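Q: For a teaching session next week I want to show students how multiple molecules come together into a single three-dimensional assembly. I've collected the sequence lines for a complex. Could you give me the predicted structure tokens for the whole thing so I can convert them for display?
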Amino acid sequence: MRVQRATRGKVEDSSRAWHDAPQFTDAVGDAPRRFVAWTLASLAAGMLAIASFNLLVDPYGTAGTGIFPTGLPRDVSLKADLLDRLPSAPDTVVLGSSRALKVDPRRITADTGHTAFNTGGRAGGPPEAYALLEHLHARFPDARPRVVWILDQEAFRHNGLQPDLVNDPRFRRFLPNKRRQVDKPGLDAWRLFSWSEATDSMRVVEADINNKLGRTRRAKRNGGFRPDGYYVPDQNYNFNLAYSKYLNIYRHGFTPQPIPQLYLQRTLAATTAWGVRPLIVIPPMQPRLLAAVQKLGWTARHRWLLAMLADLHTRYRFDVADMSSITDFGGSADGFYDPVHMRPSNADRLVDVLASRYPGDI
Amino acid sequence: MLFNSHVFIFAFLPFVLVGWYLLRPPTVRLAFLTLCSWFFYAWWDWHFLPLMITSTTVDYVAGRMLVATDEPRRRKLVLVVALAFNLALLGYFKYAGFFLDSLNGIGSAAGVGHPFRALNIVLPIGISFYTFNSMSYTIDIYRRQVEPAKNAIHYAAFVSLFPHLIAGPIVRYSTIDQQLRKLAPRLSSQLAASGLFFFACGLSKKLLVADTLAPHVDSLFRQHDHLGLATAWAAGLGYSLQLYFDFSGYSDMAVGLAFLLGFRFPQNFNSPYKSLNISEFWRRWHMSLSFWLRDYLFIPLGGSRNGRWRTLRNLSITMFLGGLWHGAAWTFVIWGLLHGLFLVVHNLAKDHGLTPPSVIVNRVITFVCVVGAFVVFRAPNMGVAGDVLSSMAGLNGLGSPATIRHTVGITFAVAIVAALAWVNLAPNTWQVEIRPRPLYGLVLGLAMAAAILQIAAPSPFLYFQF
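A: Of course. Below is the structure for the complete assembly, covering every listed component.
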């Protein structure tokens, strides 16, 4: 392509800002037609190449090609890696989602003298908690660890199992009906045509190659976890974005789903059978969000959660600590990264209060 | 609907092109195009479609009434009513909330609380653009510079034509009148090639450049009170480049889409960052707006005909209103006034022979002024703008190399340097003489594929907010 000269003067002199759009030069015969054909063909080829790669690798397990181990390494697998390295069972196990990430096992040890391990991880719902606990029990069958479960009402929002949970061979045996219950996002054809999925496909391929070469460094690369499962990095959440997200969740409403309830029940059945009395802790929200969502159905769902736990309490042994407001444990409004994720200051305060009020459970 | 969305590229556009070229009677084709454009507009929020149709109807009727009479007072009355309607639309939807908030602010400062209830008015997308299109039509007919639209469908097609509906270029009826009367009978390979070229260039600018810069710029502006000299400049330069690639990308896409439909749109950007002075910048940046402001505001105010001070006053008023056109916020007002000030200073300096002789110095001064003003344009309020500008002036220190590395990052730094080289050295889309070689087709197609693969989440164009 060549560059036209002297267009500047044309603009300066123009009274109407009118320029003729550049015309094709040498546009004789079939040349423009061939140009269009090449443009469209290379567009189609480029897009199809990426889509085929994504379809083949299938990083989210939506297409079911099964050539590569589906699912990117996630916290649940990283925590299982760390559990596998423990020489002995911890005295206390923390379960939960990302809201439990900053519960520091060392704080539990300082308060109670018990060794502790935090299994909490991002997107960790009742199925993950159940699978990790069963995995721990399988590894240390004689151990009777205390269980502190940080459980919020949004844990019941999604129905189904995460594909990566199902695909980790260590958890499969604990998940009956896993194929039927797997929470497939569904094959989104447009996602196949995206760099973001291609990036994830590359990661899957890379992880697979590394595994085959015996270079498993997943925990180090992705987690930032200490050997006791504590998540080290400070989280860089955007308060306003997260605030809008949770406001939207409550504004649109959600119905508690059966599969998370089923796994909650399974977990409690298992712990009761082992003679363990878990402490279920309903975690706090930042006061600004709590005040906003209370008007949007949070209160009704909170009542539902307490009623469901009360019903389960007639069959299983466990305690409930409702810490949904910071006043329940003397937390601080500033002690949050975003409206739901506690900073270490609030998490430590929470552990202190739990240790003093429920000494037998933690 | 966004140009950079799957539904637009793979469903809406092919459907429109097939219908447009399959239908034969011109009026039916224009009616089809109008309906499609209305659908395109309603995709965002159908509630505002009647507003656009009402605006279209009012200006069309005003145009008919203007040609139906030669009586000057009656013609003036029709013009005033039509303009008042358009300005009232803009005033209510765009500025009412701003003025009431400002009055509440004054009331609060005076200790009388908030005398007015806050208005939560949703700004109809594209209202500033289609209102200006319509106003230029009515004014041009009043001035007897254009013939009125052949019929209502012609006029509705002009106002709602989806390539320019949401964010320009601001197309005047005189530009498109003859094109509407003589529609392209088929999609020739010439039209398709030109259309694809412009669309692919615009899509790549938006998705591969502007959207890559955007998260870094947003992050820096969020940390406005912790910026040092280098990081503040990264924020200012990053946003100036993001805005250029975003908006000129949109304009290129609009031109490409117009080509595919057989229309020609005016150029909207002509390498503005190569300008030697601020006056030239405004002849190169958002040209359809600056020429609109010149023809319908600056010249009617007296232009540069009545002496130096009147000229400077007219420039300042024009730029103040140009700033206000961009949005109902003090930052836009200040941005417009800053540009008015730059134009005044440039005019005075030119008159007194004080402009530097060096081309490079002139370009650097102009660019620095533009970047500084864009910081005000981008900032959510003057406090943030003040923080960034004071850091750019070095008042908050240089910032440690570690902080710069952590805050700016090597990717963003390289992107800024590359984008600066592009806007200063490379030809713009309109300067490229296109040759229909298969190799160029291959490169263009792959660039387009790379851009489309980047579409993951909706990423609106920055100028949609205006």
